[in-house]
Amino acid sequence: MHEFSLATNILETAIDVANSNKAKKIVEIWIEVGEFTFVNIEQLMFALEIASENTLAKGSQLRIDRIPGRILCKNCRYEGDIKETNDTSLDFLSFLTFECPKCGSNETEITSGRELLVKNIKIAT
Ligand SMILES: [Zn+2]
């Protein structure tokens, strides 16, 4: 499960920071998730809950900022949102290119929306 390995990475980052601040407990984990990661948030939260058992992060709150996806069209220099897509298959994502909503070109690059990172944590010492 994709979400489970993401959850493990998030936890490792958060616990590293907590340890270097001599925390007894992680109260809140604040993450940024880009639209183009197509992470299933419910599954991610579930995975984090399981993975945080017996760690400093047990019972912590997850706060999520969604980062909207943006593309840049190399053909017409359009920059902005994509058209709605309902295809969230991860195999498909590895080869993902988006069609420019303005000129229809596939010569686009993703400029925002692939983020998945720990932005901040709140700890108790
Ligand atoms: Zn274009």
Helix fraction? 25-40%
For the record, give the distance between the C-alpha atoms at the N and C termini, rounded to a whole number.
33 Å
Please trace the helix and strand order, writing H or E for each element. Answer: HEHEEEHEE
- Give the overall silhouette: elongated
Neighbour order of strands in the largest sheet: 2-1-6
| Average of pLDDT | 89
Supply Rg: 17 Å
Structural class call reads: alpha+beta
Q: What ranges have pLDDT less than 50 throughout 5 or more consecutive residues? A: none
Might you state the CATH topology name of the domain at 2-69 and 113-124?
hypothetical protein PF0899 fold
Report the count of strand segments: 6
**Main beta sheet:** 3 strands, mixed
Level-1 CATH class name of the domain at 2-69 and 113-124: Alpha Beta
Please tally the helical runs, counting DSSP H or I stretches of 4 or more residues.
Answer: 3
Question: What does it look like?
Answer:
- The protein is an alpha+beta fold and 125 residues long.
- The protein has a domain at 2-69 and 113-124: hypothetical protein PF0899 fold (2-Layer Sandwich), CATH 3.30.2320.
- Helix content is 27%, strand content 30%.
- It is built from three helices and six strands.
- The protein has helices spanning 2-20, 41-51, 90-93, and strands at 25-34, 61-67, 70-73, 79-80, 108-112, 116-124.
- The strands form two sheets. It has a three-stranded mixed β-sheet with strand order 2-1-6, covered by helices on one side.
- Helix 1 (2-20) crosses helix 2.
- The relative contact order is 0.27.
- Bound molecules: zinc ion (ZN).
- Zinc ion (ZN) is lined by residues 73, 75-76, 78, 100, 102-103, 105.
